[in-house]
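Work Package 3 (structural annotation) set out to generate three-dimensional models for the target panel prioritized at the project kickoff. During this period the team completed the workflow that converts sequence records into discrete structure tokens, so that structures can be stored uniformly alongside our sequence database. As a representative example, we reproduce one entry of 112 residues exactly as it appears in the project archive.
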Amino acid sequence: MLSPLSWWNDLFVNWPLALACAWVISWFYKPAFAASLILAYWLTNVLGFVLMQKGGAKIISEENQPYTRKCLCRDLAISLLYTLLIVALVKMGVIGPIQDTVQKIQNYVHKS
């Protein structure tokens, strides 16, 4: 479930954590929503890659293997692609600050 290499990790772990963090921050300062969503996503995703690599290296080998620049570049490239998706979803209005999301839900319920 927590493997950064699985699609469901982003869907069920990183995205919800990043969105929750962005909602909390935007509750106090609404314009910070997009930036805090991206930052929180990067932190959860990159941290997941680093922890997975460290844990895997300890299981496979008794010697402590360093987190190489190549691994970091790969992990950053993957995170960048997901970040572009986050930016697109924010720009299209699919995701937004908690206040806007609650308002959309209330409008939808009242129309039904």
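The mean pLDDT is 82.
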